[in-house]
Design goal:
Blueprint: E1 13-18, H1 24-30, E2 39-42, H2 51-63, E3 69-72, H3 77-86, E4 92-96, H4 98-103, H5 111-124, E5 128-134, H6 145-164, E6 167-172, E7 175-180, E8 251-252, H7 292-303, H8 316-326, E9 337-343, H9 356-367, H10 371-379, E10 383-388, H11 403-422, E11 427-432, H12 437-449, H13 469-485, H14 493-501, H15 503-517, E12 522-524, H16 527-539, E13 547-549, H17 556-565, H18 581-599, H19 627-638
Parallel strand pairs: 1-5, 1-6, 2-3, 2-4, 4-5, 9-10, 9-11, 11-12, 12-13
Antiparallel strand pairs: 6-7, 8-10
């Protein structure tokens, strides 16, 4: 117990659901009975002309301790979001209830935007907060249009807020049943039933939800091994399937559909069939390299284009890279790119300053076509595949994952690349949104290059824009301790992933290797991508030639690893939208460079003689000596 009776295993954010008159509000208030001061965020209009409702509000007030402070937030959806965002770490809040907040959204076209903002505010709230919300999904469909609208919005809010909370309870007849977190003994787990890993709204549940077998066990943690954890903190063991392929996450197709790729980009390519040949992912793999002749031919082609001044400038590298990958002197713009967004969290202080809930919200936003990645993917016709991986262990104390887990996830990443190329994808983009992934990538890069950890970790910026130096120091200490734990050992690629990298970096390295085998370029953007590139290079050195760096973002880990890999950034935008979003932002610019290279005319040929209209005219005939002119003049004189 904490000093005021709040159980530590509750976490900082609790959602209490319940039906009408279920006792949800009273139970939520009881969770804060030991708090010295509570700010009560009321969402309903106390006096709305309904005497019965006014009596219920009065009863609520009488039940609450007099030390509690009531803050009215009715009428403006942003008022509740602002109150959550402005709360300090020492504050305690209760929101009662979210149904009153949803009422303010019924006539708004931007309701989903406000829901996303609320979920983000809950996830980033520094205070301890209990939220009360009506569960409306257990009854029949409401008979009125307004009722249907309210039920739909309420369900959306409950899913989004539940994904942002540490614990979720359902109150039925005054009796709480913990759906996630809550009682340390696991009230809802008393019978020994396993708890499903919580996923953000819209996440694919996979076959594991129906107990279809270990091979499909929760796509959110393919091949997770003992590194997987339930959200209640109970260790679980997921057996790595004996078959090489693990069910893949859903491919999300944005609204802006890209045109069908040219036949030249879907022709048969070199492939290393993972199942048929039983290929072993290990050092010194024999992988293809880009076409050097096509690259040089593309350079000659660019020299002949009718472009004034510096021409394409730095974008020339984009054309040369695409030419080598496609084996064409005049490469075509990428027509069907796909982003693989890696969502894998890391425990311990590697994730200081970040929360798994914040990472889950980023992934959920991308699924819904929101946030930087979701919006840019839809804008530029990029299909999106969110790859949820198991949680990595705290690297300062133990290996990030087990050896067998890493082996399975390398093959899983290769599988994802195979499936993408088979569907016509001609460019893979790697992104990451996991808590602690940046520090894990820095640990890998430091182990490979010997660079000092403080010089690799960027400053930690909180959601409110403030710099969190304490979190940065905790990250540095975690990575330093992890490197100290493995000191004196030579770590080959797979051991790097096992000790320091974790499941998400293993999948990323597998994607790069699989894409290399299929002669498909990979666009990197950020620490996780380049760290995975270093690991893939140590397994198949040719893989680095198929990788391009969209932008360093001036991140020190990315800058150093890119230099070691020999990657020149294709742009220098210096954005901070998150790993993967920078690549999507640069993608239309890179495509435009390819379009210009393929469409601009060549310089006119040099001629031995100038064109006719530029030649000097022949000498005019002399009137005095031309007989015809003389006769005409004579005739005019006679007239």
């Amino acid at each position: 117990m904490s000093h005021d009776g709040w159980p530590p295993h509750f976490g900082a954010r609790v959602l209490v659901l319940g039906g009408i008159r279920s006792g949800k509000s009273e139970y939520a208030e009881s969770l804060l009975s030991g708090a010295r001061s509570v700010r009560y965020l009321a969402t309903a209009l106390a006096d709305g002309g309904d005497p019965a409702f006014a009596d219920r509000v009065a009863a609520h007030r009488e039940r609450r301790p007099h030390s509690w402070i009531t803050v009215e937030t009715y009428g403006d959806p942003a008022a509740l979001v602002d109150a959550l965002g402005q709360a300090a770490a020492e504050d305690t809040l209760i929101v009662d209830d979210l149904g009153g907040w949803v009422v303010n959204l019924l006539d708004r076209e931007d309701a989903s935007v406000h829901v996303s903002r609320l979920a983000a505010a809950v996830a980033g709230c520094a205070a301890r907060v209990v939220l009360v919300s009506p569960e409306v999904g257990l009854s029949v469909v409401p008979p009125s249009e307004a009722g249907v609208r309210f039920a739909d919005l309420m369900g959306l809010v409950n899913q989004a807020v539940a994904a942002a909370c540490d614990a979720v309870a359902l109150v039925v007849a005054g009796q709480p049943v913990w759906l996630r977190g809550g009682d340390a003994a696991g009230t809802s787990q008393a019978a020994g039933a396993p708890v499903a890993t919580a996923q953000p709204a819209g996440a694919a549940t996979g076959a594991a939800a129906t107990g279809a077998g270990a091979a499909a066990a929760v796509v959110a943690a393919p091949g997770s091994g003992s590194a997987g954890k339930t959200t209640a903190g109970t260790p679980t063991t997921v057996t790595i399937p004996s078959v090489p392929f693990i069910p893949s996450p859903e491919v999300l197709t944005p609204a802006a559909v890209a045109p069908k790729p040219s036949a030249a980009l879907t022709e048969s390519t070199q492939a290393l069939p993972l199942v048929a040949t039983g290929v072993v992912i290990g050092p010194n793999m024999d992988l293809p390299i880009p076409d050097g002749d096509a690259r040089e031919a593309a350079r000659d082609h660019l020299h002949l284009l009718d472009i004034p001044g510096a021409g394409l400038g730095q974008l020339v590298e984009t054309v040369l890279f695409a030419a080598g990958a496609q084996g064409r002197a005049v490469p075509l713009p990428w027509q069907q790119p796909r982003m693989l967004l890696l969502h894998g969290n890391h425990e311990g202080d590697a994730a200081a300053g970040q929360t798994p809930h914040g990472a889950a919200l980023l992934a959920a936003q991308a699924r819904r076509g929101e946030g930087p990645i979701g919006l840019l993917a839809a804008e530029h016709g990029v299909s999106l595949q969110i790859v949820d991986t198991a949680t990595a262990e705290a690297i300062e104390h133990s290996p990030a994952a087990e050896q067998d887990t890493v082996e399975g996830l390398l093959r899983y990443g290769w599988q994802l690349a195979d499936e993408a190329v088979d569907s016509g994808v001609d460019l893979l983009v790697l992104g990451s949104c996991g808590a602690g992934a940046e520090a894990a990538a820095a640990a890998v890069v430091s182990a490979v290059t010997g660079a000092e950890v403080p010089g690799l970790l960027a400053r930690v910026v909180s959601a409110d824009g403030t710099v969190d130096d304490a979190a940065w120091m905790r990250r540095c200490a975690a990575v330093r301790d992890a490197l100290h734990r493995v000191r004196g050992r030579v770590l080959p690629a797979k051991e790097l992933l096992t000790e320091l990298g974790g499941p998400d970096l293993a999948v990323a390295a597998g994607v790069i290797l699989g894409a290399t085998a299929r002669r498909t370029p990979v666009l990197l953007d950020g620490p996780v991508g380049v760290a995975a590139g270093l690991v893939a290079r140590d397994l198949g050195s040719q893989s680095r030639l198929w990788c391009a760096l969209a932008d360093t973002g001036r991140h020190p880990t990315t800058v150093l690893a890119a230099d070691v890999l020999g990657l020149t950034p294709l742009t220098d935008l210096n954005t901070g939208l998150g790993e993967g979003a920078g690549a999507l932002l640069a993608l239309p610019l890179l495509r435009s460079a390819l379009t210009l290279a393929a469409s601009l005319p060549a310089l006119p040929p040099l001629l031995d003689e100038p064109p006719a209209h530029l030649q000097e005219p022949e000498d005019e005939p002399d009137d005095a000596t031309d007989p015809a002119v003389s006769r005409a003049d004579d005739a005019s004189i006679v007239d």
